[in-house]
């Protein structure tokens, strides 16, 4: 490898990446059309923080989105980027109820889209799960499982605490693509595990986490910054998936392709059970032209995310109702205590999605109505609110 990114000029075309983060400054020059025509490929669709403007004033989400699909610094330079605001721009904290709400919004936008779906979810955030909850599936984890059961890749930052990523939500969720970070060692002329990156068997792949130039959400809409963190390693993988999806692969096929063509033993300094795979996206000429077809976009074409066969029914039930100006969530605040105890490790009942559906309905009742912007690709929307989630920057 010579360090030069030879990109596909149509990379990401027709693919959509949902960025659940602090928002996206859609007016930044990085999100302009690759051919220079007017318009932006980024938009804000939804927020769980109605007290703040529907944009990103804190730069984190904008930087993440630009690594995915920025015109200059991005991997997939023609992908559509959809911002779903689950973190305040004034801090790196969010709520797990906000994450749950954002995931529900993606579900509502995607549930009626034709298969194979061309969507990806990027989660550059994490929360530490209570030690007693190792075998407990929290509502946001089940929501992630549901999206994966629809064939949608969910890419997650491993975290920056130099601890086992299996202690983190959502990095520990079975089937997600958990991305750990590397730093380049010029003396050894190779990638090494970044000293702050989380590790362990829940990690699926490594990508760069230091010295990353990306968009900054400044007032001129053209600022850039140099950043570090697994928050910015994960979007490299999301961008690579978007490139492959635009070339005809389904989400699961694209991930299989990346794993098969990653650089083996490309990272030094790892010994905690992680696969030694460093992200590599071969030139476009080496990628398509006839991707394998397995599952053919049917329900069989999903990630190894566990059996959640009843999920769709329960989420549909939670998504119906009276409507609140942005998609029809019911507001039943009186059941808000139904999920409160799960935060302390009590878990969710074996009723599966029945429990999460009640939780979603309850939480939605506690959140004020939010302003919905224009639909993306004429799809629909939704939302909700709930423990600390930390951006991995």
Describe this structure in words.
By secondary structure, the protein is α/β, with parallel strands linked by helices. It contains 7 helices and 17 strands. The strands form 4 sheets. Strands 1, 2, 3, 5, 7, 9, 10, 11 and 15 form a 9-stranded mixed beta sheet that branches. Strands 4-17-6-8 form a 4-stranded antiparallel beta sheet.
In terms of topology, how is this protein built?
Blueprint: E1 16-21, E2 42-47, H1 60-69, E3 80-85, E4 93-95, H2 96-110, E5 119-123, E6 125-128, H3 139-149, E7 154-157, E8 168-169, E9 177-185, E10 190-193, E11 205-208, E12 212-215, E13 224-227, H4 234-246, H5 251-261, E14 263-264, E15 267-268, E16 277-278, H6 311-319, H7 353-365, E17 388-391
Helix pairs in contact: 1-4, 2-3, 4-5, 6-7
Task: Work out the number of β strands.
Answer: 17
Shape field: globular
- Estimated share of beta-strand residues: 15-25%
Order of helices and strands: EEHEEHEEHEEEEEEEHHEEEHHE
Rounded mean pLDDT score:
75
Rg, alpha carbons: 19 Å
Helicity, as a percent range: 10-25%
- N-to-C CA distance: 27 Å
Structural class: alpha/beta
Give start-end ranges of low-pLDDT stretches: 285-301, 305-390
Summarize the biggest pleated sheet. Answer: 9 strands, mixed
Tally of alpha and pi helices: 7
């Amino acid at each position: 490898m010579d360090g030069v990114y030879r990109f596909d000029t149509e990379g990401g075309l027709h693919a959509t990446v949902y960025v659940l983060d602090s928002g996206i400054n859609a007016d930044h020059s990085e999100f302009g059309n690759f051919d220079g025509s007017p318009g932006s490929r980024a938009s804000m669709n939804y927020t769980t923080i109605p007290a703040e403007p529907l944009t990103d004033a804190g730069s984190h989400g904008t930087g993440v989105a630009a690594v995915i699909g920025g015109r200059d610094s991005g991997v997939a330079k023609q992908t559509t980027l959809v911002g779903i605001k689950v973190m305040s721009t004034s801090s790196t904290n969010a709520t797990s109820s906000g994450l749950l709400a954002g995931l529900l919004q993606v579900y509502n936008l995607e549930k009626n889209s034709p298969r194979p779906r061309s969507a990806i979810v990027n989660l550059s955030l994490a929360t530490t799960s209570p030690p007693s909850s190792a075998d407990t599936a929290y509502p946001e984890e089940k929501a992630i499982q549901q999206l994966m059961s629809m064939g949608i890749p969910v890419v997650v930052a491993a975290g920056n605490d130099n601890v086992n990523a299996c202690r983190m939500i959502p990095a520990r969720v079975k089937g997600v693509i958990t991305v750990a970070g590397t730093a380049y060692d010029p003396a050894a002329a190779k990638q090494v595990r970044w000293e702050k990156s989380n590790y362990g068997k829940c990690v699926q792949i490594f990508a760069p986490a230091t010295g990353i130039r990306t968009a900054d959400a400044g007032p001129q809409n053209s600022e850039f910054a140099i950043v570090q963190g697994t928050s910015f390693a994960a979007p490299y993988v999301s961008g690579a998936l978007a490139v492959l999806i635009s070339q005809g692969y389904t989400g699961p096929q694209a991930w299989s392709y990346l794993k098969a063509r990653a650089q083996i033993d490309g990272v030094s300094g790892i010994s905690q059970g992680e696969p030694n795979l460093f992200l590599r996206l071969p030139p476009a000429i080496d990628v398509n032209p006839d991707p394998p077809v397995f599952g053919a976009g049917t329900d069989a074409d999903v990630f190894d995310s566990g059996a959640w066969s009843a999920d769709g029914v329960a989420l549909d039930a939670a998504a119906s109702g009276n409507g609140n100006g942005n998609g029809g969530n019911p507001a039943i605040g009186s059941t808000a205590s139904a999920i409160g105890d799960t935060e302390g490790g009590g878990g969710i009942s074996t009723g599966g999605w029945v429990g999460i559906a009640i939780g979603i309905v309850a939480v939605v009742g506690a959140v004020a109505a939010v302003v919905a912007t224009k639909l993306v690709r004429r799809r629909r929307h939704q939302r909700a609110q709930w423990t600390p989630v930390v951006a991995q920057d």
